[in-house]
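Reference record
================
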Amino acid sequence: MIRKTSLGVALAVSLATSTAALAETITIATVNNGDMIRMQGYTDQFTQQTGINVEWVTLEENVLRQRVTTDITTKGGAFDIMTIGMYETPIWGANGWLVPLHKNVNFNTNNLSAAYDVDDLLPAMRGGLSHEGTLYAAPFYGESSMIMYRTDLMAKAGMSMPDAPTWEFIAKAAAAMTDRSNDINGVCLRGKAGWGEGGAFITAMSNSFGARWFDMDWNAQFDTKPWADTLNFFKNMMDASGPKGYATNGFNENLSLFQQGKCGMWIDATVAASFVTNPKDSTVADKVGFALAPDTGLGKRSNWLWAWALAIPAGTQKEKAALQFIEWATSKDYIELVAAKEGWANVPPGARVSLYENDNYKKVPFAQMTLDSILSADPNNSTVEPSPYVGIQFAAIPEFAGIATQVSQEFSAAYAGQQSVEEALGKAQDITNEAMEAAGYR
């Protein structure tokens, strides 16, 4: 049974008496990831409780980013709630494009209720979704990245996964687990173009090889040895042990491959752990182990930090209804709802301190590794050499999304054999320096 907390009672009472809300329909843009799909399945309960109808626009990750960015910069008004992340939120909040959810001073001015318990949000998530102390988006789930691997294939290869492996070990294990005759790839990684798809993965990986996007004077660094080492290592390993067509594979494609038993290892978002261990969807659910993302001994691991979060664009005519949905979807009550219906392993992870203090959740096999991965990710100190930007798999500047999308396209072309790694890095260097000069950084 779901306990009815003060938040649930407050929502039920206040919303049931709001005749204005009864007739409203809000439109939400979201990504086609599993937790968001699950949330849509519970929307009827929100509507029954509040009288607010919800229309969903569910999009592939790259398309979502394009659509919401275009809508908010042009003030298109297509959405009342947008699913965005740690890159967009501080920038858009600073521009006045988002409705503030919580301020650190003068609690009476906050939009989130006291029962919501904003102080229960993990500091890494709250900080990454804030600008100058004001929270502009509520985390639906938070994540880092880690290794998910087939324990049976690792044992068959005569190897044992360390808790904190090196990239050298990963390449060796991938080669040992690859079995082309049985359609088993030793490793599945993102190669898909898009700054938040393959671009995010290779940037986080490059940190562990000692690379960085910019030096302290905002000069591009793609002409350096660490970047050449990163791309050559990635391509050589994936050509030898990755799936055919990996240059077009992103999160969802690799998730499907792993669930079908076609990957020995997959290094990706920690949120995927619940999907690969769910026997309803995964053929290898009882054969999955977890480890920290790899390093090269330089002091930086290749894990990122991210939250898919819900934000309200400034100017919406349905701010109150949108806020009510955000409180419902990112609350402790929602976590308990999913736990009661689908088990603790399937609740949205990585957002609240109380979840990791919950004895039921502590029993989930990937819970501690997820938390360890999140806590080890430091967006303020992500590179071996000093860098002028905040962010792990991105640089938190407005120009980054456009630049990194183009750069990732060049990288994907190299993965696909359409150009050499050297050519891709040369183009990345020119693209980045030209854009930064035009933007006035240099």
Summary: Residues 6-143+306-361 form a domain with the D-Maltodextrin-Binding Protein; domain 2 fold (CATH 3.40.190.10).
